Amino acid sequence: MSISSVNYYTSTSSTSTSTSSTSSSSSTLGITSSDFLQLMVEQLQNQSPLDPADTDSYLDKLVAYASYDTQTAISDNLESITSTLSSTLSSSGLGYIGQTVEVTGSTTSLEDSSAEWTYTLDSNAASTTINILDENGDVVWTGSGETDAGTHSFSWDGTTTDGTQLEDGGTYTLSIEATDSDGDSIDGSTTVIGKVTGLDVSDDDSLLKIGDASFSVENVLQILAS
What we know:
The chain is α+β, with helices and mostly antiparallel strands. It folds into 2 domains: 82 residues, no CATH class; 129 residues, Immunoglobulin-like, CATH 2.60.40.4070.
């Protein structure tokens, strides 16, 4: 098998009951300033004549209640704007710039003498061979890989099989050949891990750049901690 992917949220009792009901409503959608005013009227009707509430205090409450609906509307609008902006940044790819991501694919760029992939084997293998191919399809490095089923990380430092250190830049492809004890190929998949260095919007599709390699935004699997 050769595993290779294409890149690309009473009165006292009455007052107590009203307070409890309003408190419960405040935690749900649909509450308005009129609800608060109704509660205040209830409190005025049931206050002690010997100890009436302070007039200034109630005036302050009236002002606060009058502005409640406006404050709520502003909060909802800000939440909507934030959500829209976040969605736009994500779909356009701008939010990925500078982030280390994992994307579906097998071709990446050698940057700072490092290229990283993961490869997944669908079942245990008797033998696994890892090949790194250059842009011309020539094998520049080969070695043995993990044989257990599951996902494995692989990092290459840009050194060829014969010990030559390759310069940064260019693109290299990971190819996995895994077989079972009967010599049959084992299926699997590969991903690329790297820091997004740019965004190509020259075509209809926004392409993330990891060095010289390009990936579709739709191929991003996750953002990794730096």
